[in-house]
Every structure is written in C-alpha cells, then in structure tokens.
C-alpha cells in the first residue's frame, strides 16, 4: 500500500508571489501564514513556504498579492542540499490545487467593509 502525503491549509500570503522560469515551466514561490488557536496562548501564526507549477502557479501569480487569502492543497516536499560546507534542509508545500478566497486589492475593501456593522444572513 502506498503512503499518503497530503496537506491542506488556508491562510494569507506573507509577500507577493515570485515567478521564475524552470526550463519550459513556470514556478511560483510564495509563503502563507495560517492562524491557529492554542488555548491560553491565544492565536498563533504558522508559516508555510509553498511552490506552485504551471497553471496553478499562474493563477496565484496573476490574482494574488501580499495579504490575499487562499486555500491550498498539495504534498509536503523535503529538500536537502549542501551550501558552504553546511547541510541545509527545507520542507515546502508543493501545491496541487488552489482556491482563491479573495484576490488582489480586495483585502483593503474587506477590511473597510468588516469595520461597518452588517446584518447577519443565513446562507441556507
């Protein structure tokens, strides 16, 4: 039986996504912060480095910016390399799917709108 390597996270981009060419493909690197509730400690942010290839990367590059809220799913990828005689390691999320929960420019509008009192509506 094959092992399972699957992760899903929602959060906000910590900086604008960075695109680069890797051969004939485009890869987009970005990081997201995802808040977690830890009892008495309160809300704690977790930070995840992410990498998206091809169409998924293009969507993130074109429609997301620092502060954009996204939902991603993919696989954890472990990398190990040598630099200046020192062994370096990194774990990233290799993104397979992305859901845009808001887009470029909507963060400021969302913040302004959320400060205004709004009537609760039942989506069902």
Brief summary:
The protein is α+β, with helices and mostly antiparallel strands and 124 residues long. Helices cover 15% and strands 53% of the residues. Strands 1-3-4-6-5 form a five-stranded mixed beta barrel.
Number of strands: 6
Please state how the strands of the largest beta sheet are arranged side by side. Answer: 1-3-4-6-5
User: Unreliable runs, pLDDT <50, ≥5 residues?
Assistant: 108-124
Indicate the percent of residues in helices: 10-25%
Average pLDDT, rounded to a whole number, is 85
Annotated CATH architecture = Beta Barrel
> What is the chain-wise order of helices and strands?
EEEEHEEH
CATH class: Mainly Beta
Which superfamily, in CATH terms, is the homologous superfamily? Answer: Nucleic acid-binding proteins
Q: Which radius of gyration do the C-alpha atoms yield?
A: 17 Å
How many structural domains does the protein architecture include?
1
Main beta-sheet annotation: 5 strands, mixed, barrel
> Quick one: overall form?
globular
Distance between the termini: 41 Å
């Amino acid at each position: 039986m094959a092992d399972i390597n699957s992760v899903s996270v929602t959060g906000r981009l910590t900086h604008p996504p960075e695109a680069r060419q890797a051969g004939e493909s485009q890869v987009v690197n970005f990081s997201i912060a995802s808040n977690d509730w830890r009892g008495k400690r309160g809300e704690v942010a977790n930070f995840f480095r992410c990498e998206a290839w091809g169409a998924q990367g293009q969507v993130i590059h074109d429609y997301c910016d620092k502060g954009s809220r996204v939902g991603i799913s993919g696989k954890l990828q472990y990398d190990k390399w040598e630099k200046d005689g020192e062994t370096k390691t990194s774990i990233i999320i290799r993104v397979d799917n992305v859901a845009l929960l808001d887009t470029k420019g909507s963060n400021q509008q969302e913040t302004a709108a959320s400060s205004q009192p709004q009537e609760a509506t039942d989506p069902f």
